[in-house]
Design goal:
The chain is an alpha/beta fold and 523 residues long. It has helices at residues 43-54, 90-95, 101-105, 117-138, 141-153, 158-170, 181-184, 188-197, 199-225, 243-247, 289-306, 316-319, 342-352, 367-375, 394-397, 418-423, 433-447, 454-464, 474-478, 507-519; strands spanning 2-4, 10-13, 22-26, 59-61, 229-234, 262-266, 276-281, 309-312, 320-325, 335-338, 357-359, 380-383, 406-409, 469-473. The longest helix is centred in the middle third of the chain and has 27 residues, at 199-225.
Amino acid sequence: MTSTTSEGGPATPRRGVLGGRRSGLLLHPTSLPGPHGIGDLGAGARAFLDFLSAAGQRLWQVLPLVPTGFGDSPYQGLGAFAGNALLLSPERLAADGLLTGAELAAVPCLPPGPVDHAAVLAWSGPLLRTVAERFGARAAPELRRALERWREESAAWIGDHALFRALKDAHGGRAWTAWAPPLAARDPEALAAARRRHREEIEAEIVAQFLFDRQWMALRREASARGVLLLGDLPIYPALDSAEVWARRDLFQLDPSGAPLAVAGVPPDYFSATGQRWGNPLYRWDDRLAGCVDLFAARVRAALRWTDAIRLDHFRGLESYWAIPAGAPTAEAGAWRPGPGAALLEALARQLGPLPLVAENLGVITPEVEALRARFDLPGMAILQFAFGTDPRAPAFRPHAHVRDLVVYTGTHDNDTALGWWASDGGDSTRTPQQVRREKELARRYLATDGAEMNWVLLRAALASVADGAVAPLQDVLGLGSEARMNRPGVATGNWRWRFAPGDLRPALASRLGELAGLYDRA
């Protein structure tokens, strides 16, 4: 397998998806500190790269970088190929001559706590319109040429995406299924009229997407210079309210009005006794396989422009997927249906070569799912928080059972923090108090601990593992409790808001983490 350069091209040969033995941290850019109410791609991101380097960490895992939709979730993106323009650094826009000093000073200074998406949207919309106007009026010639090159490279998706965002704003933010029928149905004359009517809004979105790509690629080059691999995240399904489903509704299980016939999710699990009803539309794998494969492959290629490798979310849905009747209030009424399996992965391999994918093989995993993963040499995942309880795969998650072709996590964005997990009585999951007591007793005996500093106990176990990859959410390095949890599966609101505070990345923490990375040959 080969790695990729900071521009997405081939570089030097490497072993495995992660290029050998390395460890790193899971942190979405929205969680970075900064003065404007949300993390961005400016100074805070570079400071985090510096911390990774000082701590001997050679991997930064992010969540999907898309513009968020329902519930502010990055797994419900408004565009599968687009970037989240809320992450743009105003300071870097000013450095490009697209904001004046006075305009930069007028960007609100918001509290350093959790992300208030509504407050950020309130200032970012007018700011990005100003940036687009400034770009059109007097952007530097080099920047104009770069935009035109990018526009040509992105022609397959940017037109539909920019029109979708303009129409969504024009309809008060409502989902496309509630738009004027000719626009929802993509009547050619209605779309042509909309492009004329919303020309300025469309151009503003194109400029914003170009600038996101420009800032992210600059950050990617800085990560590469520090030897830090970027691990991205690709949701298996686009959101229903997304440019891609609106533009290619023929590829999804929808009725003539655009409403889903069935939706995605998973059966009852660790997080919910009624399962998880995600609501994403399902692909028409059975009768539109070629088109679905083409769209999926395009999404993978786009994600690999921004990252070196990808965690493929809900990998088991490729072997078979849980289809929930659209009218069902919970996931319990779903049923397993066959997915595309090897046909999709073979098509990806023909286009990409050895697949730079980490398979998220959690949940109800069958021998068929594992055989599919093994056939394409994709590393799976092991979660230490699941290693001592009732999960059927708990024995395989314990470090003595690990293999090299694996990424071990203390926890993921869906889990509680390590300290939150250790303090829990089970009320955050489907575990009973008795099961929690047995789980903790096994963890104490297995990890030879009295339970003190359980975050560092799990960090040491992860980094000591034979697995090539070891990842921890930053919250576990900082020793934070449940108040710092990123997401609670099955809970629709209040997620995706956590940010760490300025000053949290202390040299002592970098030294302690770096010692473990060096001790276990990951630095």
